[in-house]
Structures
1.
Amino acid sequence: MKNKDSYHHLRGESLFVDDVNVQQGTLHALVFDSSKAHGTIKHIDYSAALAVPGVIRILTAENIPGKNQIGGIIPDEPLFATNQVHFMGQPIALIVATSERIAKKARACIKITIDELPVVTGAKEAFDKNLFVAAPRAFTLGDTSKAFDACDMVIEDSVFSNGQEHLYLETQGAYAVPQEQGNIKIYSSTQGPTAVQKMTAQVLGIPMHKIEVDVNRLGGGFGGKEDQATPWAVMASLAAFVLKKPVKLILNRHDDMRMTGKRHPYESTFKIGLDKDYKIKAFEVYFYQNSGAAADLSPAIAERTLFHATNSYFIPNVSTTVYNCKTNLPPNTAFRGFGGPQGMFVIESAIQKAAEQLQVPAYKIQEQNLIQENDSFSYGQIAKQALATKSWKTSFDSFAIPSKIAAINTFNKANKTIKKGYALMPICFGISFTNTPMNHARALVHIYQDGSVGVSTGAVEMGQSVNTKMLKVTALELGITIDKVKIETTNTTRVANTSPTAASATADLNGKAVQIATKALLNRLKTVAASLLNTSEENIFIEGNCIYQNNVKTAITWEQLVAEAMLRRVALTENGHYATPEIHFDKRKEKGHPFAYHVYGTAFTTVTVDCIRGTYDIDDVSLVHDFGKSMTLGIDTGQVEGALVQGIGWMTMEEIGFDKNGRLQSNALSTYKVPDIFAAPKTIHVQPLETTGHELAIMKSKAVGEPPLMYGIGTYFAIQNAIKAFNPNYKKVFHAPYTPEKVLVDLYDK
Ligand code: MTE
Ligand code: HPA
Ligand code: MOS
């Protein structure tokens, strides 16, 4: 089944926020933001800006009728800065004008005086100064101090991974339209319609029911619109509320890159202990998360880092601690993997370091420590249907990995200035929001009297094809063809109190809610059919818009059945509510069963490094992935490929730079490079692992959005091994991304 939207995307017909037909009299807004990363606002002079013809109003914190507060987990983030500014790009005011061009002209006329305060940009630097956005968290299993004493080998080192710009094609934006009696309708490019609704209500000081948030689709989110789509929607709404005019606020790319948070950079230190059989006996890590200037989702992201700090390995003694370090950068936020990738990069680095010391290929250590059935994760969940070894073995068999490794070694002996490298990267990713109360969803299903069906859920379409999945679930459950089903926009008036579209769990949660609703509707319709056919409900089944009795097609069509149900005054609407069973987590003990299930896989990456230039090609990534029983294999394979390349970008070429003053240097597509077709692997092989799937996955088709991003981590180590083949003096260092500049330096490191 193809993505329902592809055809319309290709023709440019799909609608995004900026394509919504604006009403007459619509005003355009632009954010005035801080030009300093830290300081006290002494004076702002708006007079010249207000004098620009076409400028309607400049709104600041003083114009907020409710609370000047949009912090999601911790209330530490004002919508508009008042006395102090904490990062460059922090919003201070909103310029509302008759056009965006005029607003821009006005922005250049605002005069601001800021008394500068010391700027902190590094996580460890913030840690040393005791600057945090939240309290630290720690997971422990066994007793590491005792275990290290008994190890044959103990290694310590530090690891750095940088941030990552989301670079959704559609920048942040919203369009707020006043309705009668002070109500507001917001069109928003958000992963979290309820977050937008809730924060708008809070800032305007009005109840949530006065605000309707509507989301048609996103031109990508990747986590960047889970919480950080909110401020722009709130600002547009504030202006619409105050001025009683429709207001549109779409960030241009520069503003978006400067004002929004990114993936969290992490500085980490590890200690790993092994015995002589390569068994990892103990592992200790301190993660210093660069949270930025406010909490945003950082505490939840830090938590997921701990959940994935041992990746797909069983380690009997673990001690992991994470600090949310407060810096003067834009608040960092959710990004595909949600802290998991940063955690996994550290354990994989530790294994690489150990392998270097032991002078064995790293995969020998990886292989020895894969998590097995009934092993415990550090957070107490017991591994069930563990597929680490199965996916590992399948990749070795299917891709003839030993002979490929031999060929690489032969190549490296024969070539002096060009070297090949390889790495294996297993993954294990937990599915569910780590915050148990968020794991629920609803679906509202209408069967119209002509037999067509409309489905509303809390799922937001952002390119991952969740709408196509909802379409398939509905059609299959009702026994009708997909042309009968329409997936409606995501709207807070139709489906309320939704969790954001995130954690890769959207299709599971919302799909199960659709199943609950459609099952109830189907049962009612079967009762009508049974009465028409003078039989009992068990004998009825529906497929392809036809009604069957005892597996024999009857003359009754779906349309006729629905029409009859209508005459009999049967309810043709149902609301399904689903909450993931079995999951729980005790934050005081840091133990529980937080995940519905885990997704596994193994990737084998090969690269070629030009040892004169430091440039590299990614020759191939061949991977075995646990889709469960994929319900849409083409779509899911696309998710794997996209996530893989995004992970490779994070590990190799995407380099975010802030200067000492907290100014973003990589602030445009000329200075921030994401993989294009030439940087992507020359070939990608995605082989589905044969499994039975999981009951808690929608139709046993496992969540796929985030886990494969972490296959990209293998690229870092493949490059490293090619460097090692060229320069035996090279001591492995862990400072992602491995840009060609860094590779060149390391090739000639003495
Ligand atoms: N795929 C596309 N094309 N665009 C996106 O923005 N976001 C990713 C992933 N795949 C994203 C994507 C992220 S961060 C998540 S959490 C999941 O999709 C969310 O959707 P799902 O829960 O339906 O998998
Ligand atoms: N994943 C993604 N987004 C989230 C989570 C999570 O576990 N928790 C809160 N937001
Ligand atoms: Mo995805 S980072 O959970 O939006």
2.
Amino acid sequence: MSKLSKLLERLRLEDDARLVAPEKAGSDCVVSDNPATGEPLMAVRLDSAEDLEKSIQRCVAVAAQWKQLPAPQRGEIVRRIGEAFREAKDDLGELVSLECGKIRAEGLGEVQECIDIADFSVGLSRQLYGLTMHSERPSHRMYEQWHPLGTIGCITAFNFPAAVWAWNAMIAGVCGNATLWKPSLLTPLVAIACHKIAARVMKKQELFKPSSGDARDVFSLIIGTDSDVAERMVADRRLPLISATGSCRMGRRVGQVVAGRLGRTLLELGGNNAIIVMPDADLKLVERAVLFGAVGTAGQRCTTTRRLILHESIADKFLEQLVKHYGRVTIGDPLEKATLMGPLISPRSRQDMRAAIERAQQEGCHVLCGGIPGMDRWDKTPGYFVEPTILRAPQGKVPAVCCEETFAPILFALTVKNLDEAIALQNGVDQGLSSAIFTDSVRSAERFLSHAGSDCGIANVNLGTSGAEIGGAFGGEKDTGGGRESGSDSWKQYMRRQTCTINWGTDLPLAQGITFGTS
Ligand code: NAD
């Protein structure tokens, strides 16, 4: 029995009706590759537009009953889902590494995020608070309350194949919604595994037994192409909220279609994140933050550090050191303990990286390490490996290529004369997700965090751009889409607010003191 078969067996996926041996895959299947070998792992049968219609109907029906269960009981069910993820952590983490190419520590970290957000949601299930307001009218009471939306359409990217679904589905679940999940076709196995974990809990629990339909439909999964499934979901009015994570290109399309039907979106799109390094920074911390931020996950995080904005007085020396660290990054099988960087997700991603490096060179950038020779060194190795690359931008020039997000481990180094210039450079791109400054000056740090500082959704001082905690609201501004998910009060996006006024007096006073007719 192969390693993969054993893993699928431990995850209790071996009999899943969707799975097809790769050699038997037909045109109705998508084949999931192992990016570290380029070999097929398994094929997955695709759902059709008709399957989508049935799924939406089932979700809508179950959501109408799920919302009647008291929120703390919904929280109790989510608590059990979190427990099931705890039990499956090692195996699911390994599957994330196999299918998505993340190193083992990051695969496990991804499952930990699912567990953390389930825990967070359990507490939240007793804290879906509304405010009370003092009415301007005598003998009136005003308050706001929050009701579930119905069924949430959740579209996710390949690079967080489990966690982004969990961020949405666990919170949407305690808020009283069903979630219909459309994962990336690059990572369908992880999606099936996550869905199965939740479905088993839903089947076994005794708290929610819908009179019609199936409790498992609260956490529903649909795996299909963009034309058959994703675009139809986005256009469907029965899904009042579309939460979509992916490229800005995708977000622009989804945003327009959902706005056209006056629905709601929660968009979590591309980033182009920068670290600013001031002369008074602790450079040892910067080195570690840049390594994790720019090389971690092979540069395939929305929060990956893509631009390094260095004060000119420290730039040369710092880059010299950084290049040495880059030279020590072990690249290879993501499941090997010593590996720090696994492969890119696909041959297409490799081509995109190559094209970006070529463009950068045409725009005057110098390769400090990696580059095209670094890519060539991995050309004959199976899998989609590359070398992490640092490109130094020409003095006083911002190459156009570094204003775009290339989803690969390319770091652009830029130099500035002062903090104002650094902030202008950091904000001078279309995306606005994550940002960081390294400095020991309170004045510089506070300036960076002020209204005249970073324009991003995430702004950090003395830590990198990558690896946010689930407790804060996660998301970014401008072309990153404006969405906020995960912690803080992000739950409000999965609910509708109702303002309620109760008149307990014997008169009918009007607001703003208006008199209408005789009183
Ligand atoms: P992608 O845009 O290619 O695909 C993302 C998802 O959108 C997939 O499920 C895909 O099938 C779907 N999709 C694509 N076109 C669609 C359409 N017209 N209508 C409906 N759905 C559509 O992105 P990817 O390559 O999977 O992921 C990488 C991108 O995701 C990067 O840009 C990265 O920055 C971004 N990302 C953002 C966040 C965040 O929280 N801001 C998190 C993870 C990834």
